[in-house]
Specification:
Blueprint lengths: L5 H6 L10 H14 L8 H5 L3 H14 L8 H8 L9 H9 L11 H4 L4 H10 L16 H18 L9 H5 L3 H24 L7 H16 L6
């Protein structure tokens, strides 16, 4: 936060040999919530105990809303838009999410063309559930459409066998052909799987999270935020 916001750098207390202390953690949370306008439910104890997952989520939220990068010029914006060739505006939500989980050499710009060989989906599934992909069964060098079909059929089998996904009416060739409805169905379910898994780790002690659990947690969190005596 000091690096991207000079206002915080001038106000924040010093750390003791780089170790977070109570005064510094309270100053950070107050500044993020009040000055940067980023709502959160963290307390000083969360930072003092060094919970890496909570720190990661807070840092990601801060960087997303205030990353310190200069605004793109009009020419830069036009140049940037030329890389986005998909017509569906919903793809704008999927592309950054996919690229955030991929190594630089696998970054994608077209949702349907770049997912057609199954390799990107395999990497995303592996990030979601370590060890679910047997890379010996994946054809990393794509010579023709049959290699794409083989990869996508294998990815489909992994999703069907190791993930709680609904894949009715979907097959490997649908991914190869870039059928928008099916691609969105698959990506939405992967996003939901990752979100519930993260929520389970953070707030439910690692147990499987159901829709009822999420609804109950949301209502309780909202109720606490409406309580003027609650220090959120």
């Amino acid at each position: 936060v000091r690096a991207i916001d000079p206002g915080f750098a001038s106000k924040s207390p010093n750390l003791n040999n780089g170790v977070m202390n109570e005064k510094a953690s309270q100053c950070l949370l107050d500044y993020v919530g009040n000055n940067m306008g980023i709502k959160h439910n963290l307390e000083t104890v969360d930072l003092l105990t060094g919970n890496p997952k909570l720190e990661e989520l807070l840092a990601a939220r801060v960087f997303d809303l205030n990353n310190g990068l200069s605004q793109l010029s009009a020419d830069e914006q036009n140049k940037y838009k030329s890389f986005w060739t998909d017509d569906n505006p919903n793809d704008d939500a999927y592309l950054p999410w996919l690229n955030s989980q991929l190594p630089p050499h696998l970054r994608i710009g077209n949702l349907y063309r770049d997912l057609s060989d199954g390799i990107i989906l395999a990497h995303i599934l592996e990030r979601s559930q370590r060890g679910c992909i047997n890379w010996k069964k994946m054809r990393k060098t794509i010579r023709h459409k049959f290699d794409k079909v083989a990869n996508c059929n294998y990815v489909y089998d992994v999703m069907k066998g190791k993930f709680p996904f609904s894949l009715v009416g979907i097959a490997g060739p649908d991914i190869v052909d870039g059928r928008q409805k099916y691609i969105h169905t698959i990506l939405w379910q992967i996003m939901r799987y990752q979100a519930t898994k993260k929520l389970s780790e953070l707030s439910f002690g690692g147990k499987e999270v159901t829709d009822a659990d999420i609804l109950k947690w949301s209502k309780e969190t909202f109720a606490k935020s409406q309580n003027p005596k609650c220090q959120c």
